[in-house]
Amino acid sequence: MISKRAESFTSFIVMDVMAKAEELERKGEHVIHLEVGEPDFSTPKVIMRAATSALSNNKTRYTHALGLLELRQAICDFYFKEYGVNITSDQVLVSTGTSPALLFAMLAILDHGDEVIISNPRYPCYQNFILAAGGKIKEVKTYPEEGFQYRPQDIKKKLSPRTKAILINSPSNPTGIVMSKDQLQSMTQFDKQYIISDEIYHGLVYQGRAHSILEFTDKAFVINGFSKLYAMTGWRLGYCIFPKEFTQVMQRIHQNFMISANGFIQWAGIAALTKAQKDVTKMIRIYDERRKYMLARLKDMGFVIHVEPTGAFYVFADARCFCTDSYKEAFRIIEEVKVGVTPGIDFGSAGEGFLRFSYANSLENIKEGLNRLEIYLSKDY
Ligand code: PMP
Predict the structure, then answer these.
(1) pLDDT tens profile 51-63
(2) Whose CA is nearest to atom 5 of ligand 1?
(3) What CATH class has 4-42+278-380?
């Protein structure tokens, strides 16, 4: 019998859209993918070369459970250079993506029945990491006009003696919105809870810069990785930075459940952090060009953009003037004009009536996709 816990895991609705796209593609249709949250760029060559060189040098064994010391040190140096924060290599766990790193952070802090605050809307997998670790989610509704940021007074209303952590994500998936310094600072008033800060979209910021939660508090778990900024989704490499008292427990958790992250890929991670800046700068320039184009076209078509997204590669567009059921709408769009978009409901009930558009696709494809969407909107269905 399937466990109640496994039954409680929600599915990723965007996968349904992708399955539909695949079905259409098998029939020979040309689908434009604006639903996927994955860079369309190849991994920079300098990173590829580091991986092949590590392979030819037999870097094919287990590493330290927390990760290669050289990579952990490079992560510490990176956080010092970017944010001026001092962390040490015993505060870093390298894992096979940010996803397992987040699960292990939850396992480290949650006892059965402990609560974690998450926003509504948010990245759809968060609740499942919490449930997997025996925790409970406490949702806090956020509002489009406020860039879907937490209202601290609403967090306070949800706190209980069992609340262990508050999860934040900036730049955010699905909104692309970057938290300001003040918004991050205001999170530190919750000093009895850990702040879990998903910083995976850091670096992909097109105006100003993103701040790390570690600039404001040490009582935090940072989740970050290589998938997005370095176009390395398939490599599976990410990390967690945690308070010092968790070193041994994180090491024990990782020893048991993963042994270690992939050896040669960790060497490639060092190259990403230290040698790929030129490639990253180029990708950022291209993303920004697409972002501006997409925003202008969506606004022209009547979508409402309450707060301009300046990070990640998403636009979370308010489609409530013509759409009440975002799931049905996304399917109608892909069936009628063969454009994949992600329904807002995927990110929680407060995302209903919104559609998430990803600009991790070429400008040419984005143009074609938006042209098709314009035709779709001009018809009465
Ligand atoms: N957090 C957010 C907000 C994401 O969008 C993603 C990927 N879609 C992840 C975490 C997981 O990334 P990965 O496991 O590839 O590092």
Answers:
(1) 999 999 999 999 9
(2) 173
(3) alpha beta
